[in-house]
Design goal:
CATH class: Alpha Beta
Number of helices: 4
Structural class: alpha+beta
CATH architecture: Alpha-Beta Complex
Shape: globular
Number of domains: 1
Length: about 160
C-alpha cells in the first residue's frame, strides 16, 4: 500500500478536521469544478449548496471544461461566469465527503457552525480500461477515470 499524505497542512491541527475519499467514479475535471465552487465557503453553506445542485436548482460554474456548455440563468450574477452544469453525481460524492469531515470535526469537539472549507484537493485516480466491441471485429477502448478527493476544514471565530 502506498503511503498517502494530505497536500495541505493546517496551521493548527487541533482546530482542523480532515476527510478523504479514494477512487470516486467521477472524472477529475468535474470534481475540480465542484471543488472550486465550494472552497472558502462555510461547511453548512457548502452542504446546502450541494443539495441544491443535486436537486437541479443551482448550477456549478464550469471554467476549464466549458466547451459547448450552455449558459445558465443567474449564474453570472453569483459567480461572474455564465457557463455551468448540474454535476449531480460529483455533488453527491462531495456532499458525502463534507458530511464525513463534519463528523470528524464533531469527534474532535469542534463547533460545526464555525467550520470553513480551507482546502479541497482533487487528484487523478486509477484509469480503468474497458473494451467496446465495434463492427468488423474491431474494438474501441473506454477509459473510466477515477478521482481522489481530500477536504480540510478549520474552525474560525
Amino acid at each position: 500500500m502506498p503511503n498517502w499524505v494530505y497536500s495541505y497542512r493546517p496551521a493548527d491541527e487541533a482546530r482542523a478536521a480532515k476527510a478523504m475519499a479514494w477512487d470516486i467514479p467521477v472524472h477529475p475535471k468535474v470534481m475540480t469544478e465542484v471543488a472550486r465552487a465550494i472552497k472558502g465557503m462555510r461547511l453548512l453553506d457548502a452542504e446546502k449548496y450541494l443539495r441544491s445542485v443535486i436537486e437541479l436548482k443551482e448550477p456549478v460554474p464550469f471554467r476549464s471544461a466549458s466547451k459547448k456548455v450552455p449558459h445558465k440563468r443567474g449564474l453570472a450574477d453569483r459567480w461572474g461566469w455564465p457557463i455551468g452544469k448540474y454535476p449531480v453525481k460529483a455533488a453527491s460524492y462531495m456532499l458525502k465527503l463534507l458530511e464525513n469531515a463534519a463528523n470528524n470535526a464533531e469527534n474532535k469537539n469542534l463547533d460545526v457552525e464555525k467550520l470553513y472549507i480551507v482546502h479541497v484537493g482533487v487528484h487523478k485516480g486509477l484509469t480503468l480500461k474497458r473494451l467496446y466491441p465495434r463492427a468488423f471485429g474491431r474494438a474501441d477502448i473506454i477509459r473510466k477515470t477515477r478521482s481522489h478527493v481530500e477536504v480540510v476544514v478549520e474552525e474560525r471565530g
